[in-house]
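Q: Predict the assembly, please.
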Amino acid sequence: MATERPSRLRVFSLNCWGIRFFSQLCTQRYEMIGELLCQEQHDIALLQEVWSERDFLFLKRKLSSSHPYTHYFKSGVIGSGLAVFSRHRIQDALLYQYSLNGYPYMLRHGDWFGGKAVGLVIVDVSGLKAHVYVTHLHAEYSRAQDEYLSHRTVQSWELLQFVRHTSCGADLVVLGGDLNMHPQDLGNRLLRSHTGLRDCYTETDMFDGCEDGHTLIADNHFTKKQDLVPFEKGIRIDYILMKGSQRVTMKCESLSTTKGPVADKPFPYSDHEALTAEFGLLHSEDSRQRGSSDTLAVSEQMEVVAEARALVKEGLCQTEALRDKAMHLMFGALLLLLLPLAMAFLPCSCSCSFSTLGLLGAVCMVLLLSGALLYLLFTTHIKVLKETEDQMMLTSNDLQTKLTGCQLSGSSSLDGSPEIQPLSPFKREE
Amino acid sequence: MATERPSRLRVFSLNCWGIRFFSQLCTQRYEMIGELLCQEQHDIALLQEVWSERDFLFLKRKLSSSHPYTHYFKSGVIGSGLAVFSRHRIQDALLYQYSLNGYPYMLRHGDWFGGKAVGLVIVDVSGLKAHVYVTHLHAEYSRAQDEYLSHRTVQSWELLQFVRHTSCGADLVVLGGDLNMHPQDLGNRLLRSHTGLRDCYTETDMFDGCEDGHTLIADNHFTKKQDLVPFEKGIRIDYILMKGSQRVTMKCESLSTTKGPVADKPFPYSDHEALTAEFGLLHSEDSRQRGSSDTLAVSEQMEVVAEARALVKEGLCQTEALRDKAMHLMFGALLLLLLPLAMAFLPCSCSCSFSTLGLLGAVCMVLLLSGALLYLLFTTHIKVLKETEDQMMLTSNDLQTKLTGCQLSGSSSLDGSPEIQPLSPFKREE
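A: Predicted assembly structure:
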């Protein structure tokens, strides 16, 4: 049943690379981004890495006529960097900050300070309720030795859980952002298979953009070539995903990316390429399209969640080892603290003044304090990893129940292994 | 239309006061709690302050036949303390850790270490989808000078947002826990008015328990009498709230509390009283009861959110002052750091050895580090408070739109004041 409701929706997504005093030509690029958005008049623009509120306010002023509705999500020390500009009224907003997001002492990476998160805005698109998510996951600094893999997997899990549980009443669901994952990476498969969200790049009728949909390309003025190795042609890490509902069928009619250099401009918009998706909306009471993941293979969901559980377990072991190291640091500092005490009581030929002892004591105290802070940090990380693993087990069990159709009480274990254990509901004792 | 689906649901909630080596008679009380739950066979038991996983595992073993489905929510350093025991299958779980939860340096209060949160479990009650929430908010240590009031208000806001956005597909919604707020406190009114959740104590047909439904009472062996001043009779801070849906009407048929001493036992279960609610469920396709807050007065919602915004703004000013103090500490430490440098170059009569200077330098470094950590902490708090205020403004604007029926585009401001400003969409420039 066709209605007079909107039949088109255009969504834009860009990682703006907006680190003041660090990102090149920041002010000029924000000017260009503002112009582009003014001109293109997308229904909704999802921006990431708008780290400075001043830059957000600049865009807000610039887009006050074209996109009068905005929300800037705030979290962490300098984050979250997420901003939404909309031509349609934003009714509500909700933020979920990821529980794991790197380490505060990794200053050169700095993700921890960004308070990475997923933001949800509920947009009234001429009577349609669109749940629009914008997110930015932890960066991948080394594909070969990715020390943040478990963090990114936990973030993917939290993202999918958040989308699953908050998209229920939506007519349309759109997710845009920088996932920092290749298309077939575990976190990406997890997200797609458990939310039913579909990747616009693989779904689109028409594509105009970089080869293979890449959003980090060698042809971009700002891209460091070594960051692309061994993917010289480029990487696809920015996405627009979508799903419809029982009331509205959503179809990606076209997807485009910027291609590095911009016509009549001396440099690109960002070190990432921007995405623009155009959706066709079919309002139909008898639409067979389901918003939920019911149509996806349960077995595929089970496989991917099992893989993710194994990875989270591995992350747990690594984090436990880090916590042990923090404990050793504390013990070492405590032992060292005994040294000035011993020196104070021993006859010593060297000039062990009160001040020397004090200095040594102060150093020990700093080490002890650092050890204690690290211990606390890794303890909270372990809690998060365990919580994620437990939730994954619950999902596995639920999928198993669906698969076997066995819904008799007592037939599955919540805290057990993913295999159903009818007579032993508590397989794993922690 | 009556069906063969369950017509009753019994829910239990208790703050277990389970701080190992601190809470009195912890082991014995967990024995008693386990016995009570085994015997009473509630459908769902919601526990708070189960701080030790060992105690959770004890209960899990004890309740393996009566409540085979469990989830223990993990967050923070030692938290979250939240546990669910269910006779019905738990299909899924989701945790939302509150963004503000006291200060890590307030060791004697310790809430920060608990990682206070709201946990959601989705329970399959014989075909009915029950969304069951368990939570524990920041404690109130002084009613006259409550330094955590803005934190608790932000927690209430995050709780209501979480419930609003994750309860959409539920047949039944139940929330139980220790809200650490009196019945008419702002956070409580905010929660009820914006979620449509109803307080079992005021809704029940039959009540058997402490006077005025108190859950902290003078007659409890473990209660410190000074904690009750000036409410000598007792305080009601533990709640079970509920709402039905269009498919199921939910009615609280009876509510009871424990009353301090327990028959045949030398002491009570906890320093809090336990709550038990029994719900009647009416399955009706033409039920007029709405799960949403539509039936509640929009104007009441607006008033309470305006009050909350004012409080959050006040919290923001206080936190900005704290951040300034942290900055002063940093500057002071930096200035002090110049002292040993100056002393090293000045001819000095006192015995300013290298070690003395080193000691002084080390002290300055510790002060500088502390100042920096506090600065980071308060900066993240400010982000959270601003985000909360922004979300509250969005809600205000949406309510205003509902109230006036004015849904023309450009008629409300997302970031503006709660009053609609048709020609000035961006009232407030931050």
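The first strand of chain A starts at residue 8 and ends at 15. Chain A has nine helices and 13 strands.
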